[in-house]
Amino acid sequence: MSKLSEQELIRREKREELKKLGINAYPAELFPVNFYSNNLPQDYKEGKKVIIAGRLMSRRIQGKASFAELQDSKGKIQVYFNRDEICTSEDKSLYNDVYKKLLDIGDIIGIEGTLFTTMVGEQTVKVTLFTLLNKSLRPLPLPKTDAEGNTYDGFNDAELRYRMRYVDLIVNPEVKNTFLKRSKIITAIRNFLSDKGYLEVETPILQPIPGGAAARPFTTHHNALNIPLYLRIANELYLKRLIVGGFEGVFEFAKDFRNEGMDRTHNPEFTVMELYVAYKDYLWMMEVTENLLEKIAIDLNQKTNIKAGEHEIDFKAPYPRVPILEAIQTHTGIDVSNMSEDELRKTATDMGLEVDKTMGEGKLVDQIFGGKCEHHYVQPTFIIDYPKSMSPLTKEHRTNPKLTERFELIVNGKELANAYSELNDPIDQKERFESQLALSEKGDDEAMYIDHDFIRALEYGMPPTSGIGIGIDRLVMLMTNKSSIQEVLFFPQMRPERKAEALSDEEKLVMDSIKKSDSKGLIAVKTASGLSNKKWDNSIKKLTLKKLVKVVKNEEGLFIEILD
């Protein structure tokens, strides 16, 4: 266990003092809350008796009276403590000792009191009785505001915020609003689809074959069955089995998992909504998607326009439809429609794009579009009619056998949705899977597996069907104007928390000098530290061995980097 700070030690001592007074710092009994901060002002009535509970966030003690701020699940409310109102007998210890000395900012308390308005017109709860519901043993990292209204010492470090989301939610109220909006978006989608009569379902997360997408899966082992299992990368093939079974429309909010990289738009665990509807095609699905996103924008913001970074995006339907090969030609000046795999690889290489020998035609076209075209599409745009090699689960285009009936919705330069006229020819589907197997044998670890049971299901007959997958996390990012997926996930995946390394005084001095240096140049940092050559060399060596820093060399000289 890490060494406790002075504040943490003091709070533990207070906990023991409370115990000596016969006060349980963690009572089990129900506390009958009947009023919340957001009930003001509409439910305000002078003298009304209320019971509230929440976290003590600030207080101003002035002798026998005190104003404090209580934060509940809805917001903040001011409360007024008066010693003689709380302690009506000669014994004033509940106020003098418990409230003034043994409570701290961050403690959770329950309050019985009455509503009144202060001299300055603020609606407040006058406390008649308070109960300690939880003693907080760690101080909150609360921001401070100076006399000029400037805020500092805020809880702003991204890694700490994501790692300790529970603290982030307490001290940064705007964070909670993001997740309330996320819930509202999901509710809007669910209501939109349910109103159309489609059924919300659940499909397996542990799957014997990771099908439905081109992605690297997480692998595990089932001991009882002695078989490998995979966390699902997509729920598509199971939902289409339900269409085979006779449901007209099914959808699922699914947790999917992909054992791939992490960045501002990717988390290994993410949420996708997938919808499949019988007797429809991708043209119909485009109209549904437009109407859905327009509704979400209005439900969330009361208008179709939203702010996304430096752009204003309008979700008013309809959206443009641009064939992918046409988009590539427009933005690169190159017609790739009749290129072989080798020609595509050379073209991508000439464009400065990263490619390798495992990539087939589909991935190469995708790489060219993603690297040279995608970012141009800020307003909602359907990119349509993908080459067959890019779309192993998609029905062949009705007018061009080289293409498929597929679209991706691009918004603000990022893919938001992927949809098809679903392939329902079992013979064609088997051949497409076999083509994917060939890619796998070339070394493509994201190529699709052959799902023989799914082919068998298709052999019983699946009606013409359209399906779509919408990335919920990216949709929430867009609708809440967040640039990082970690901002819209309660608990994003993080590296293991590094144990604090014990540092000597010289090592601490070097670390401080690095942090304060603008250039991070080795000579500048060494000079700023004021250490002798011997102490400097020894400190840098030890910091490097502890993997806290590294020295890098480039054309401009030697620099020191702090490692994450």
Please characterize this protein's 3D structure.
The protein is α+β, with helices and mostly antiparallel strands. A hairpin with a 4-residue loop joins β10 and β11. The two termini are 22 Å apart. The protein folds into 3 domains: 6-140, Nucleic acid-binding proteins (OB fold (Dihydrolipoamide Acetyltransferase, E2P), Beta Barrel), CATH 2.40.50.140; 176-320 and 379-488, BirA Bifunctional Protein, domain 2, CATH 3.30.930; 505-562, Orthogonal Bundle (Arc Repressor Mutant, subunit A), CATH 1.10.10. 34% of the residues lie in helices and 24% in strands. The strands form 6 sheets. The chain has an 8-stranded mixed sheet with strand order 8-12-13-20-19-18-17-16, with helices on both faces. The protein has a 5-stranded mixed β-barrel with strand order 1-2-3-5-4. The mean pLDDT is 93. The longest helix is centred in the N-terminal third of the chain and has 23 residues, at 173-195. It has helices at residues 6-20, 83-86, 93-102, 158-163, 165-171, 173-195, 236-244, 282-301, 324-332, 341-350, 361-372, 426-441, 452-460, 472-480, 505-516, 522-529, 533-545; strands spanning 49-62, 65-71, 76-82, 108-117, 123-134, 144-145, 151-152, 199-200, 206-207, 219-222, 227-231, 249-257, 269-278, 305-308, 311-314, 321-323, 381-384, 406-411, 414-421, 465-471, 549-554, 557-562. The radius of gyration is 30 Å and the shape is globular. It has 17 helices and 22 strands.
